[in-house]
Amino acid sequence: MLAYILRRIALMIPTIFGIMLITFAIIQFAPGGPVERVLAQLQGQQEGSLSRITGGQGDLGGGAARGGGDSSKYRGAQGLDPAFIKKLEAQFGFDKPAYERFGKMLWDYLRFDFGRSYFRDVSVLDLIKEKLPVSISLGLWMTLISYAISIPLGIRKAVADGSRFDVWTSAVVIVGYAIPSFLFGILLVILFAGGSFLQIFPLRGLTSENFESLSLWGKAVDYAWHLVLPLSALVLGAFATSTLLTKNSFLDEIRKQYVVTARMKGVSERRVLYGHVFRNAMLIVIAGFPGAFITAFFTGSLLIETIFSLDGLGLLSFSSIVGRDYPVVFATLYIFSLLGLAVNLLSDLTYTWIDPRIDFSARGA
C-alpha cells in the first residue's frame, strides 16, 4: 500500500506541471492582460479629461492630442512614454521572457509563495483565506445534506423497487436534477427573500451585521438562517445521482446469494439490510464522498454566490480571470489541482478502509 501511495504522489508532480504549463501557454496568447488593462484605464481617463476640456467636442487632432503615433505591442499605448510602459512591464513581471517567468512561478509555488494580487493590495494567500469560509460552507453542507437525503432514500427505493413510492420519488428526483440550481435560486429569492413576495430569509453574506454581539446559539442560528436559501438551491439536484447510485447498489447486493441464504436462516430484514448488505452496497457511495465534496467546493457555487451575494472562491476566480489578475488565477488553479489530485488518492484509500479486501498495492499505478 505504501508503494502505491508513493507512486500516486510521484505522478502528481508531472500532472501539476502539465496543468500549469498548458494554462500558462494559453494565457500568453489570450488577448488583453494586466498591462493592457492599466493602459486602457489611463486612456479612458485621458479621453474623459479631453472631452471635458473641449466641451464634449471629441478628440481635437486625434494622434496629436495623444502625443503622436508611437508604435507599441499594446493596444491603447499610443502617445504614452515608452519608459512608462517599460516600468509597467517590470511591475507585472513581463520584462522577462516567458520561460523565466514560468520557472519562477513554479519555484515560488513549490514553497507556497503565491505573491500579491495585481489589483488588490493584499497577498494572494490572504485573499484566498478570506474567501474560504463561503466556499467551505457551501461545499461541505451541500455534500452532507445531499448524502443525508440520498442514502436513506436510495435504500428505501431499493427495498420498495417498482412500488408507487419508488415511481413517484424517481419522478421527483429526476425533475429536481433537471432544474438548474441558479434558476431555482432566483425563484427562492423572488418568493422568500423580498423579491416580490415574502421577506423571510436574508439575501446577503453568511452572517448578519450584529453577528459578533450574538450568543453562541444566536450565531449558529444566524449562520444557518443565511445558508437556507443557497443550500436549498444547490441541494435540489445534488442528491439525484447518489440516490440512484445507492438504490442500484442495494438492488445488486439484495439479489446475491448470501442475502437469500441469510433470509432463509430467519435473519430479520433490518439485520439483512444494515448488517450484511449495507457495507458492500455503500462501498462506491461512501468512498465517493471526498470527491463529491471537492466537486461541490470547486464548481457548484459561482452563480449561487452571485445570486445570494456570497463572496467565495468561485466569484473570486471568475472576477480574477475577467480582470486579468494572473497571480490569483494561477494560485487558485494550483491549489484546486493539488487538492483534486490529493482527494482522488484519498477516495482510493477510502475504498480500502471500507472494504479491506481491496488491495491497491497489488495494482500498478
Automatic annotation (TrEMBL):
<dbReference type="GO" id="GO:0055085">
    <property type="term" value="P:transmembrane transport"/>
</dbReference>
<keyword id="KW-0472">Membrane</keyword>
<feature type="compositionally biased region" description="Gly residues">
    <location>
        <begin position="55"/>
        <end position="70"/>
    </location>
</feature>
<dbReference type="GO" id="GO:0005886">
    <property type="term" value="C:plasma membrane"/>
</dbReference>
<keyword id="KW-1133">Transmembrane helix</keyword>
<dbReference type="GO" id="GO:0042884">
    <property type="term" value="P:microcin transport"/>
</dbReference>
<keyword id="KW-0813">Transport</keyword>
<dbReference type="InterPro" id="IPR035906">
    <property type="entry name" value="MetI-like_sf"/>
</dbReference>
<feature type="transmembrane region" description="Helical">
    <location>
        <begin position="134"/>
        <end position="155"/>
    </location>
</feature>
<keyword id="KW-0812">Transmembrane</keyword>
<keyword id="KW-0997">Cell inner membrane</keyword>
<dbReference type="Pfam" id="PF00528">
    <property type="entry name" value="BPD_transp_1"/>
</dbReference>
<feature type="transmembrane region" description="Helical">
    <location>
        <begin position="167"/>
        <end position="193"/>
    </location>
</feature>
<feature type="transmembrane region" description="Helical">
    <location>
        <begin position="223"/>
        <end position="246"/>
    </location>
</feature>
<comment type="similarity">
    <text>Belongs to the binding-protein-dependent transport system permease family.</text>
</comment>
<protein>
    <submittedName>
        <fullName>Microcin C transport system permease protein</fullName>
    </submittedName>
</protein>
<feature type="transmembrane region" description="Helical">
    <location>
        <begin position="328"/>
        <end position="347"/>
    </location>
</feature>
<feature type="transmembrane region" description="Helical">
    <location>
        <begin position="281"/>
        <end position="308"/>
    </location>
</feature>
<feature type="region of interest" description="Disordered">
    <location>
        <begin position="50"/>
        <end position="70"/>
    </location>
</feature>
<feature type="transmembrane region" description="Helical">
    <location>
        <begin position="9"/>
        <end position="30"/>
    </location>
</feature>
<feature type="domain" description="ABC transmembrane type-1">
    <location>
        <begin position="132"/>
        <end position="347"/>
    </location>
</feature>
<keyword id="KW-1003">Cell membrane</keyword>
<dbReference type="InterPro" id="IPR000515">
    <property type="entry name" value="MetI-like"/>
</dbReference>
